[in-house]
Design goal:
Oligomer: single chain
Helix content: 25-40%
Radius of gyration: 20 Å
Strand order of the largest sheet: 1-2-3-4-7-8-6-5
Number of strands: 8
CATH architecture of one domain: Beta Barrel
CATH class of one domain: Mainly Beta
Structural class: alpha+beta
Strand content: 25-35%
Largest sheet: 8 strands, mixed, barrel
CATH superfamily of one domain: Sortase
Distance between the termini: 74 Å
């Protein structure tokens, strides 16, 4: 009798585990689809230079997006394309919600693709998980409505989270991409992972 009860408990536990795994896979799928659809909208905005944002948003059904910031894509300023073809939208905002769908460019005075250090942040378990695969020598493209420029990665390193150096201005034209580190870590990651690239 006890053995039968144990078997029933094990079967129920296995079924619950399976359901949790299915739900987790569904959430990841929806999150990934959300990022891709939002990126498509942003790319259309950047490509068109002058665009009716509402027309672009109407192309995507409301219920397909988990995250929508009140249909506001006005903060979109560019697209980063990595060497492996992966793309990330760039938003000119201090609102961390945008890191759910792309990267945010911090307000440090530097304008994308112009002289100075343009610093961008995103989540390690989201859009900037790609940084772990970036190497010195890789070429990264940054597209804005004004220009398309290529950058060569000159440095990749991890540092303390309060290190001010990655955020400092520069005389050359560069981008600095920052995410939390280690990439696999429970809770608030103690360090930062930094990718620095200079204009080719």
């Amino acid at each position: 009798m006890l053995k039968k009860k144990v078997n029933v408990v094990l079967v129920v536990a296995m079924l619950l585990s399976f359901i949790v795994m299915l739900y987790g896979a569904y959430v990841v799928y929806r999150y990934d689809r959300n990022i891709k659809e939002t990126l498509l909208i942003v790319e259309n905005i950047i490509d068109d230079e002058i665009v009716s944002v509402s027309d672009k948003v109407d192309d995507v059904k409301e219920d397909t997006l988990i995250y929508k910031k009140e249909d506001d894509y006005s903060a979109a300023i560019g697209i980063i394309t990595f060497e492996n073809g992966k793309k990330v939208a760039i938003y000119n905002s201090s609102d961390e919600d945008y890191m759910m769908i792309g990267a945010i460019k911090i307000s440090n005075g530097a304008i994308l693709n112009e002289s100075g250090n343009s610093v961008m942040l995103s989540h390690r378990d989201g859009c900037f998980g790609i940084l772990k695969d970036v190497s010195v020598g890789d070429v990264i493209e940054v597209k804005t409505s004004a220009s398309i420029e290529k950058y060569k990665v000159i440095d990749v390193y991890d540092t303390e989270k309060d290190d001010p150096i990655p955020y400092e201005d520069s005389d050359d034209t560069r981008i600095t991409l920052i995410t939390c580190y280690p990439f696999v870590y429970l809770g608030d990651a103690p360090k930062r992972y930094v990718v620095v690239a200079e204009l080719v």
